[in-house]
Amino acid sequence: MNLPASARLYLRPTQFVDTPVGRDGEVVRLAGGLCWFAAYELIAVEGGRRTLQRTIPVADLPDDARLQAIAARLSAPRVPLKLGERVVRLDQPQVMGILNVTPDSFSDGGRHVGDPAAAAQVGVDMTVAGAAIVDVGGESTRPGAAAVWEGDEIERTVPVIERLARSGAAVSIDTRKAAVMEAALGAGAQLINDVSALLYDDRALEVAVAAGCPVVLMHSPDPAKTGHEGGNYGDVLIEVHDWLERRVDEVVARGVDRARVLIDPGIGFGKSLADNLALLNGLALFHGIGCGVVLGASRKRMIGALSNEAPAEARLGGSLAVALKGAELGAQLIRVHDVFETAQALRIWRGMRDAALVTRQVV
Prior knowledge:
10 helices, 2 domains, 14 strands, TIM Barrel, globular, alpha/beta, 8-stranded parallel β-barrel, 4-stranded antiparallel beta sheet
């Protein structure tokens, strides 16, 4: 196979199978998790255009150093996250529960504002229901949302985080602002989830490096502004992949441990319905960056658009469908509002996987 030296090469795992039993050499384990695949979609891009797109069995991967490096990242196990007293394993899909203490978030704005004890109890209930991490946010990032002063954001989130941390929960802070990151980490948060990939605030990366904590870097077309402007893509899957790969390299070069970096394709941030669906269908491509993958599509506008304009509170079924799609494609963290239902769905998914691993083979 002729692979031009000038081309950028990509491998998207495809032809997923239920079990590797009896298929030695025919399938590859994805990121050390519970998904196995039998083929790669090999993509070559030159001048911003796909010049090659071919499906090849995993055993027939060309002996090209570039492809071998991507294949190694695709199969390498992801390092567990050490979050306070808890260790979150990334060899199976885990639930990240959304706890918004905001007056105007698109789905649950105002529900948990002004009563830190009640909000923290909701977070504790999430952990009981199956959330590995509770993600606390004090600023809405929906389209058109007003910016929040960092002092107000700290006042909303820190009392909740303090209570959750005392309960033993693993807590992440969903913020773009360095001062909020510092206050939240001081209150007991152990992970930074930044929709701007540490680009909104000039000090954010410095704070992440000093803390040495895991970080989630999310893609958006204008991370230093609203996160929703622009977004005119020629090939959204490739462009979002390349942006995240560059950003991971930049953050690692500044001192963040690569093993503590997770990536999020940013469903709904400056993307059309067609863009979001392309990212979901192609999600496995992002494992080639070598980081854990976070999927956050719970109750989002995309689901309403595909279900007769169902309002946010009536999008549970669609959210579960997306969560299971993420699990099928190896996403390690599924960020959701409906923790109990999603954790239950993933337990059933896991049960089917476990059963497939012990299925007796014909000999």
